Amino acid sequence: MTYVLLSLPFLVIAAATTLATARRSGFARRMAASGIAAVVLVVLTAVFDNVMIGVGLYSYPAEHLSGLRIGLAPIEDFAYPLAAAFLVPAVYTLTRRHQGRS
């Protein structure tokens, strides 16, 4: 379960950073956009990870995985695109200068 533990801090940081933007204007719109982006990234990850694993480009040691898979791709592979879909807009929101609108 090494990969689960490695992924956990990324998900926690993404969630905390996203929640830090909850009072900023446009939060609901950002969450909707991040949700759509997350779905797209998860689908792309599922397709391309399965292809790359299927043709033998890489593999994972079983002792470091949770055992849950989507096709050939371990569930742990989906943490990073999920975190990115929410973290990137949150960081952008927190670092940009406040303007009258968002």
Automatic annotation (TrEMBL):
Q: Which InterPro entries match?
A: Lycopene_cyclase_dom
Could you provide one GO biological process annotation from this protein's UniProt record?
carotenoid biosynthetic process
Q: In which pathway does it act?
A: Carotenoid biosynthesis
Quote the subcellular location field of this record: Membrane
* Entry keyword set: Carotenoid biosynthesis, Isomerase, Membrane, Transmembrane, Transmembrane helix
User: What positions does the domain Lycopene cyclase occupy?
Assistant: 9-93
One Pfam annotation reads Lycopene_cyc
The keyword Iron-sulfur appears for this protein: no
Record's bilayer topology term: Multi-pass membrane protein
Q: Which GO terms describe its cellular component?
A: membrane
Per the UniProt record, which residue ranges are transmembrane?
6-23, 35-58, 78-95
GO molecular function (one):
lycopene beta cyclase activity
Output the superkingdom of the source species.
Bacteria
- What is the name attached to this protein's record? Lycopene cyclase domain-containing protein
